[in-house]
Design brief:
Blueprint: H1 2-11, H2 83-88, E1 93-100, E2 106-112, H3 113-131, H4 137-140, E3 156-158, H5 169-174, H6 183-192, H7 201-216
Antiparallel strand pairs: 1-2, 1-3
Helix pairs in contact: 6-7
Amino acid sequence: MEDERLVLTLSIRRPKPEPEPEPQPPRPPSPKNLPPPNHVPNHVPRPIRNRANPRQAPRGLKPIEIPAPFDWATTRRASIHSLQYLLSAGIKRISGEVQCKRCEGRYVIEYDLKTSFMEIGSFIRANHGLMHDRAPKHWLSPTPLDCRICRQSQCVKPIIALKKQKINWLFLFLGHMLGCCTLEQLKYFCKHTKNHRTGAKDRVLYLTYLGLCKQLDHTGL
């Protein structure tokens, strides 16, 4: 009996504990489960776009409206108020700056708005058919004024702003001095008044005179 107990005692042993498995690193997601490159999660709010202001030009373009450079000019490029508006506002004389090429003196001269406009309008109505859409010679090459400072003759010309949006169009028009503008400046006027702007200078100058006449009085021509 004692031998059987001994054998039984020896045969009953506690099993050794199995070692715990080492933790495995997480597997990367399968390419099939990855979201597309341009995927936007539903919970990400989209930026709110501001409504475009109709008075503002798109980015990269010049603004539609500008500060009025003169009392007789509007806030649009190459645009002036009508004759009726100016007279009702008490604007009866148009001024501009000139300079003598000899003494280099600078001063301001004025033109009577209504009188000067009627003079140009009458000339255009009387000679419209003879001009053949071309500016006459005295428009194309205006005679310089006499200097009030040094008293020299034919040596004074208008001072034309380098920045086109600041050109005093009405002053040059009333003084028959639009021909002192360069072809590029005249094309600028025609561009912003939606006029044909190709061709020689006498052609573009003619359109500039007509354009300003129509801005002052669209029923006159």
